[in-house]
Amino acid sequence: MLTREKLKEFALEVAGVDKIGVAPIDRFKNAPADMNPLNIMPRARSVVVIASRILRGCYRGIDEGTHWPSYSIFGYQHLSGRLQAAAYRISRFIEDFGYEAAITGMGASSREWGPWGPAPRPDKPVRDVYLQLRIAATLAGLGEIGWSKVFLTEEFGPRQRLNAIVTEAELEPDPIRTGRLCDRCYRCVAECPAGAIPRDRSVSIEVEGHKLEWADIDLGKCKLTHFGLNRRNGQFLIKRYPGFYLPIEEQQVTWREAWDLGWTIFPSVHFYSVMSIGVPALCGARGCIIGCMKHLEKKGVVKNLFQNKPVFSEEPPWSLPEKPRPATHHGFIYHPENEKKKKIEVKPGRIWY
């Protein structure tokens, strides 16, 4: 007989996830049709949500301005792959007890793309159907959604990624627990380089007496910065295009418009082209994760403790000038006369740069 305890033991000890919780299907009864697990598996009885920590060291280089790839490659792309593999192993374990299981996928922004095709039946939503993983994780008792819309747990604060499995197995649910972590300090608001997190606008739902509330994020500004197009922390962009000026706070773009602009620019910026093998996280999560992590660790509510204290810098986040330096020309850069004045010297070991 499959029980919640057996499933959790397998997930934690064999599949290697850090947290697992179970939500009964009834908690999703008011979910929009394109986010309702019953439109993935009509006879579903439980939603299982798993979480794996993002290594805290992924953010060290970002905070100190020394190393950027670790968060995008290992804390984002690689970890997503590991969670998919873990979900597959857990789903096989559920199947071995005679219950169907389906992995929902990790497309957090799938709704912004609009419908992918026609509805499979007149009474069903258009494809594709994805759970809102942060809501699902809250309903499965793993933690709560913070003001920045980042998911928080007692163990790791804002440092985890999520995946979910829908199953016909009726498992004992975990209790919902909210209001324990995010204290509305608004450090995420102050330290988001995009200014995408408002202090006074929110979105909320209520489930079983629990109010789930988060800031009404400006997704266009968020995505522009997430894709490294914000000069304030876009050092690779500035190196390639020193005269580029796109004041983020003045932009009125949608998430999709920002997405398309990013993928247009990536091929011409070497570091971005490498990072964009997957979905890049070039902003470094300066406010929504790093700022929040600093606050929760200093407050002493995170169980995953470290020897180095103070944990990270308490100074305001470093920032680059938003405006480029005044141009010394407004036309062609090349002129034959300038070539006579140049003395080109290639130093050993500098070929890569």
Short description:
By secondary structure, the chain is of the alpha+beta class. The protein has one domain.
Mean pLDDT: 90
Query: What is the beta-strand fraction?
Result: 5-15%
Work out the count of structural domains. Answer: 1
Low-pLDDT segments: none
Largest sheet features: 4 strands, antiparallel
Shape: globular
Total number of strands: 8
Structural class: alpha+beta
Distance between the terminal alpha carbons, to the nearest Å?
60 Å
What gyration radius follows from the Cα positions, in whole Å? 23 Å
Order of helices and strands: HEEHHEHEEEHEEHHHHHH
Q: What order do the strands of the largest sheet run in, or round the barrel if closed?
A: 1-2-6-3
Count of alpha/pi helices: 11
Instruction: Give the fraction of residues assigned to helices.
Output: 25-40%
